Amino acid sequence: MKHLRHLIEYGLFRVVLFFFDFLPYTCTCTVARGAANVWWLFDRKRQIVGRDNVIRSGIETDPKKARAIAKKAAHHMAIVVVESLRSKDFLSDEDTTDHLVLDIKPDVLAVMQDPEQSLIIASGHFGNWEVAGHWVSRFKPVAGITRTMNNPLIESIVKKRKSRFRFRPIPKHDSNMGRFLEVLEKKEFLALLFDQHAGEYGMMIDFFGHPASTFKTPPMLHLVTRTPLCFASCRRIGPMKFKICTSSLIHQPRSGNKNEDLKAILGSLNRDLEAAIRKDPTQYLWGHRRWRD
What is the rounded CA–CA span in Å between residue 153 and residue 269? Predict the structure, then answer.
């Protein structure tokens, strides 16, 4: 029965993929927004979580306006899927100036261009992190954590499309804790999203003024391996047009107190993410339960 369901899902996905690849961009975005509206209508729980998160962040305190931001964020996430599936339209060419505006700090760019250097890129669920990862892979292969899809047939298609841009997915749930070190040893880039609830594995760090359990992986790897670390974001500034920004390299000398060093780096990363979100709150994943009291 499960195999039959997977076949049906696979067939539907191929049909959707066909339309996403060949219909005009504006049409696919309209369809994506429509799908997001249907999801928004039926997923009352995510509506409430999104609205309450916007209010808690202080970006908007009026419940009606906060709800509108959360709904637009749902539209944004649907369009992220469209952009990611169609990123070959503008990332396959050498000249991407019509689609990308770059604000890469000089010290980060120097590391990217150094064949003997790896780099840890920390980001959040803001803008289109997939487009950023594809662009960065022009310099070197990129590895990033992804959640394996329940349908293996669809998973295989997604992997093939991502691999075109030298992006290598790392399973989120994997007992091999050395998989991150292997990436860095190969002098590749490691892209990590750190802004989901980390539970008992995280460290409580203020996010918009409220403590949130934050993944320690990016700063831990930086401190242990001394691999350069930076924050990056990719904000949509128009149809199929994005601005990729990075912080300068984060320099955190070892103080002898590991927890304090981790807190300092995570605090800096959270502040960078907050600044990015404030530029366009509708491009953030507000529907995730970031704060859990």
Answer: 36
Task: Give me the phi and psi of 268, to 5 degrees please.
Answer: -65, -45
**Residue type at 69 in one-letter notation:** I
The pLDDT tens digits for 53-79 are 999 999 999 999 999 999 999 999 888
Q: Do 10 and 155 form a contact (C-beta atoms < 8 A)?
A: no
Contacts (Cβ under 8 Å, ≥6 apart) of 66 = 51, 52, 54, 55, 59, 60
- Give 67-121 as a DSSP string: HHHHHHHHHHHHHHHHHHHTTHHHHSSS--TTTEEEE--HHHHHHHH-TT--EEE
Question: Token pair 């075109």 is at which residue?
Answer: 164
DSSP alpha helix (H) spans, the chain: 2-22, 25-42, 44-57, 63-85, 88-91, 106-113, 129-136, 152-163, 179-185, 217-225, 258-279
Residue 195 tokens, joined: 């802004």
Contact between residue 144 and residue 284 where contact means Cβ atoms under 8 Å apart: no
Is-contact 193 123, C-beta < 8 A? Answer: yes
Looking at residue 167, what DSSP letter applies?
Answer: E
The per-residue pLDDT for range 9-21, each reduced to its tens digit, is: 666 667 767 777 7
Question: Directed axis angle between helix 25-42 and helix 2-22, to 10°?
Answer: 140
Pairing of the two strands 100-103 and 210-214:
unpaired
Give the pair of three-digit tokens for residue 53: 């998160």
Rg (CA), the chain: 19
The position carrying tokens 């995570």 is 266
What three-state secondary structure class fits 293?
Answer: coil
Question: Could you tell me whether strands 100-103 and 142-146 are parallel, antiparallel, or unpaired per DSSP bridges?
Answer: unpaired
pLDDT in tens, 139-167: 999 988 776 656 666 667 666 665 556 77
Residues 6+ apart with CB under 8 A from 53: 70, 286, 287, 288, 289, 290, 291
